[in-house]
Amino acid sequence: xxxxxxxxxxxxxxxxxxxxxxxxxxxxxxxxxxxxxxxxxxxxxxxxxxxxxxxxxxxxxxxxxxxxxxxxxxxxxxxxxxxxxxxxxxxxxxxxxxxxxxxxxxxxxxxxxxxxxxxxxxxxxxxx
Length: 128
Hints:
Blueprint: H1 2-14, E1 22-24, E2 28-29, E3 37-38, E4 47-52, E5 58-65, E6 68-76, E7 82-89, E8 92-93, E9 95-100, E10 106-113, E11 116-122
Parallel strand pairs: 1-4
Antiparallel strand pairs: 2-3, 4-5, 5-6, 6-7, 7-8, 7-9, 9-10, 10-11
């Protein structure tokens, strides 16, 4: 039993990214760059990073793993409407990204595979 415990602790220490944590924009650096670091311990950030408007509404949600976008990304207008959403794998766009206006109408939809655009659709002409 003790050897299983030692193996588990060793695994956790060698793989800290298996545990996600909630981070806030003030807890990280280089958010607009490719690689994000923690301001607390200067390690590559792993977890969900949040930012909020002054009115308390959520502004940004980005999932990181070892400093790279790795999962969902969403950004909202100050009125609570979604601006865009998408998904990253190891810092590269994968899947469908959608963009919306301040009223929630879809403006565009783009499908990525390994950072390459497979197709895109512009809905903004419908609203002019």
